[in-house]
Design brief:
The structure is a single chain. It contains twelve helices and 13 strands. The strands form three sheets. The chain has a six-stranded mixed sheet, with helices on both faces. It has a four-stranded antiparallel sheet with strand order 11-12-10-13, covered by helices on one side. It has two domains: 3-247, P-loop containing nucleotide triphosphate hydrolases (Rossmann fold), CATH 3.40.50.300; 252-319, Alpha-Beta Plaits, CATH 3.30.70.1570. The two termini are 28 Å apart. The chain is α/β, with parallel strands linked by helices and 335 residues long.
Length: 335
């Protein structure tokens, strides 16, 4: 099977300038600037197979967006090689952009003041898509994303959820074999997220579309991706199956308690002092979570102590979430 993306020893450095203090320093800055070189992406290598859906994850500043910008040809790498859809994104620009679709959750590719369908028509011309191909493909996209009622509205009149569905449709006008999604569900409500996820699954199955997805919403990753690439400070710290990550790191349990009265978190910590239990509080939902190893006897002891000390409204036992697993990995800095 062909690789849609091949990255080898990819590096991107930025100059970080600093200002000297005082009037004399400001004057010297006019002629020479002090700077240090900061690597945003630090010699990374990975590949993505045609038809694969891969989650590209990391904390803010880990280098995710910088990587996407290099893969899409917006930024030039400092060193290393990139081959996307068999091309160098920088050297074969015009031919290359016809083979990719890009959705940046924070930026729009639609024209703000004109109707959505006018934006679509302009993009159709830009990508030189024939009427027949456009009608056949976009009828399905418009119906599935439920954006037909929005086509006559100017983009500025759309809600965020409506705009993101239209952005996704716009990225697919030329039916590209590869789709880059950078935070596509940021700020969206649950129903819109579900609709977008279902749609992405469908185009992946129907057209074998390759998808590289960066997101802070790990439920997106769990719903769509079998593989994750995890970035930390510009380096890849994990590249493999999401299932393996859970098998290796998800060996704990989470006990969720809701109480009939307000309970102090320190009181719960004191209750399990000397036991390998970590307590957390979700203040908004009033849920107290005990994170502990998956040992039946330990779980029973913690439940018994809490039930004896406080009045319980509800209790749940969950597997450790992907979010918790990934937080643990970042805290420990290794996989």
């Amino acid at each position: 099977m062909n690789n849609a993306i091949e990255v080898k020893d990819l590096r991107k450095e930025f100059k970080s300038y600093s200002s000297r203090s005082g009037l004399r320093g400001a004057f010297r800055d006019l002629f020479t600037r002090n700077y240090k070189v900061v690597p945003a992406v630090n010699d990374i290598s990975f590949s993505v197979r045609q038809g694969e859906m891969v989650g590209y994850i990391g904390e803010n500043g880990a280098g995710k967006s910088t990587t996407i910008k290099m893969l899409t040809g917006i930024l030039t790498p400092t060193t290393g090689s990139i081959v996307v859809n068999g091309m160098n994104p920088h050297k074969e620009r015009e031919k290359f952009v016809r083979t990719i679709g890009v959705v940046f959750g924070q930026r729009s590719q639609l024209w703000w003041d004109i109707a959505v369908q006018e934006s679509f028509r302009l993009l159709k011309k830009v990508y030189k898509v024939s009427d027949a191909h456009y009608n056949e493909h976009m009828d399905h996209v418009i119906k599935t994303l439920d954006i037909e009622p929005l086509l006559d509205k100017p983009v500025r009149k759309l809600s965020l959820g409506q705009r993101m569905r239209c952005e996704l449709a716009a990225a697919l006008i030329h039916n590209p074999p590869l789709l880059f999604l950078d935070e596509p569900t940021i700020g969206l409500d649950v129903l819109v997220k579900l609709k977008i996820r279902e749609f992405l699954k469908e185009i992946n199955e129907k057209y074998n579309t390759t998808i590289l997805l960066t997101t802070h919403d790990l439920t997106d990753i769990e719903a769509l991706c079998e593989r994750v690439i995890m970035l930390d400070e510009g380096k890849i710290i994990y590249n493999g199956a999401l299932r393996d990550l859970k098998d290796k790191w998800g060996d704990g349990k989470e006990l969720q308690f809701q109480f009939l009265e307000k309970v102090d978190l320190d009181a719960l910590k004191n209750l399990t002092i000397g036991m390998p239990v970590k307590w957390e509080l979700d203040e908004k939902e009033h849920i107290y979570s005990a994170l502990l190893e998956d040992i039946d006897e330990l779980i029973s002891q913690v439940i018994a102590k809490v039930v004896e000390a406080f009045k319980i409204k509800d209790i749940k036992i969950n597997e450790t979430s992907t979010e918790e697993i990934i937080r643990n990995i970042y805290e420990k800095g290794t996989v």
